[in-house]
Amino acid sequence: MQHLWLIPTLPLAGFLLNGIAGRRSSKAMINIVAIGSVLLSFIWVVKTLMALGDLDQTYIERYFTWIQSGALNVGFDFAVDRLTAIMLLVVTGVGSLIHIYAIGYMAHDEGYYRFFAYLNLFMFFMLILVLAANYLLLFVGWEGVGLCSYLLIGFYFLKRSATDAGNKAFIVNRIGDFGFSLAMFLIFRNFESLDFGTVFAAAAQKPEALLTTIGLLLLVGACGKSAQIPLYVWLPDAMAGPTPVSALIHAATMVTAGVYMVARSAAIYTHAPAALHMVALIGLLTAFFAATIGLLQNDIKKVFAYSTVSQLGYMFLGAGVGAFSAGIYHLVTHAFFKALLFLGAGSVIHALSGEQDLRNMGGLRHKIPVTFWTMMCAAVAIAGVPPFSGFYSKDSILLAAYHHAPWMYWVGVITAGMTAFYVFRAMFLAFFGTYRGHEHPHESPPVMTVPLAILAVLSLAGGYFAKVPEFLGKLFPTAEEPHDITLVAISVIAGLAGIALAYLFHVARPGLADSLTHNFTLYRLVYNKYFVDEIYDAAIVRPVVDGSRTVLWKGVDAGLIDGAVNGIGSNARGLGGLLKLFQSGNIRSYATWVVFGSVFVIVALAVAGGLR
Amino acid sequence: MSGVPVSWYLLLSAVLFALGVAGFLFRRNVITVFMSIELMLNAVNLSFVTFSYQLRQVNGHLFTFFVMVVAAAEAAVGLAIILTVFKNRGTLNIDEVSSMKDELPREPEQPVKTVETVDITGPLVKT
Amino acid sequence: MDVFLFLLFAIIAVVCAINVVVQTHPISSAISLVGVMGSLAVLYLLLGAEFIAAAQVIVYAGAIMVLFVFVIMLLNAGSEVRRGRSIVVQLLGVPLLIAFLGLMAYFVQRLYPSAASVKFGAFRGGTALAVGRALFTQYLLPFEVTSVLILIAIVGAIVLARKELD
Q1: Does C42 share its domain with C91?
Q2: Chain A closest CA to B19's CA: distance in Å?
Q3: Distance from first CA to last CA of chain C, Å, rounded?
Q4: Assembly ipTM
């Protein structure tokens, strides 16, 4: 008994302690509880994984029967296999680093204890999601992280934009959850169980049409959580939350839950090639689409947000072409360098006392060197420059894509080029040139820079050392692909070309970019994110809201229901008013009614045969 | 032929009772109303005694006895009440003893208020 | 003979009863009511109810009506002034009366065919002996209860009618 339950329970304890007692605690106490719970969880993960050894077999711990109703039997079970092991390490490891970073970043904010309580709650739900051994428990974690995402995006709840973004994230997620729920219904209906072991073992015998439907519905859910087309619109808005939230939830962990779920359901997807192809298509399309938007954004966090959407698309592409281990590999490396990019951006924003617009930055590499160098590590990793971690993961995906369908490889390469371009555009605009703002930049305290440094090391070398694909290869057997050096070279060149272009536009010839944009009619379209938000608003949101307001609120609720209830009241009042006329206060009319009543009673008795 | 049909007695009882009811309904003086009540009771007594004769039993007489006792008690207390009412209201007219009558001006009907809700669904897209 | 006596005293009773209802001054009504009670006492005698007839005269006419007259004189009640009556009473009163009367007559006729007849002296069970025997054996409990009832009535009347203590 490895006591897996300790892993999520420690952050839960942290949430409860900080949530209940945090308001009156000192900052030091809050820090100890919050960081301690996550660090202890990480240590326990490491200890458990070392004790479990090879993990050839899935290690399951069953705690109690959660639901027992007719044919539905769902247990509260945790399972650890190789995929889980990787996810656990990423979630707790990167999570701990971000928690430590947040001590420094949130030091001057209101609601300090509330932030860490929510963060711990998020860790709890994410760990439940990862450890779950059946779809329903996974869904619990799924919903829970959605809730925490809403709470944390809207953390600055006095800002209208933050609360709107929180609403948007939750509502769009719900659309995905609807698909997920339908998939679960179908699974239960046909497999009579929601347990992973049972379902995956029986998947091969089920008809392909059924598995395709389930796969597509699961994909809908994954699109909502992992911000793929068409449900990605919440992620850029989610940048209204504090930067550690963006790093943890919207880069490293929550958004990867969709990829994790697809990888977990590999047994279903491998027997439903049409659904798997759809996964790849959506992933590729999203990667390309989001990269184009990211080229022109001016808010540093928005650039990285669209980058996240794009990189998630890569992960879906990897899973969709059958290379699940490649997709998860990219998930791990992406967690490192994207978290680092966001934390670094947070460090920049902190240094500039809240400035987020790239146009007001510049020349910061001398003023905040630690941030600069660590972010550079992440930038080269995400650009796919060998021999850093991003190169390995992205390349394995592109290779697998080529063998699936060559056109996908080419689109992926172009996207890789765009990725390099926009990341380095952000780097050059922020750190090179002359400073265009009015603040006094100062380096961040060590509590923020040390996690940056650790993540930088991981971005550069972590993927290589962990040997993730081989580790997962046992779980996801794929055909051996020949390592084609040409393809690799092309993708590397695309990345370097992107860097060079960015250098050209933003360091060597700064005015060139502006003159080009004025000649480019597409510029306005791309700059406004293809007006997707506006289209959604007009086509879906407005009709629903207006319909609700006129029909459901004013018509049904105020008219029918209130009318019925008030009507009962006024009818009772009317009846009472009628009966009141009997009480005239006139004794003689009372007497008359008495006589009248007695006559009536006698007649009634006589008619009924009472008086013989 | 020298007997009186029983039904005649009962008819007489009915007529007296009816007259009692008439007095009870039509007279305004409260003492006269009381006396009408006594008339009704007497009519009923006649009924009881008639039936007692017809059944050749004495039980009807007992009933009459008790009715008389109760009527006496009721008359005593009732007249005491009339005295009190006269002391407080100064009138023996039962039409004037009607302070339970709803004579207050009725306030105009208040329209039922619906709860005013604040419309929070503003534009959801921040441009 | 029975018939003649019955008719005489029945008519007296009815006329006095009508007088009770119709007279304006309460004293006239009271005296008429005494007349009703007296004729009823004779009718009781015809029915063989000696004890009841005596009780009627002594208790009803002698005590209760005297009480009524005392109260009328104490309150100095004057003649009633005829004024407009309430609409309800006017509309409903007379038809109700007639309905009542009709009902009564109908049922009386149905239940008791004219064969049975009352003869003076045919029933000898209404003596004081018979009444007393039934009263103290079969109707003992109601007897005791009415004793208490009278006590309550006395107390109530005294409490209600006394002068306010200053």
Answers
A1: yes
A2: 13
A3: 63
A4: 0.82
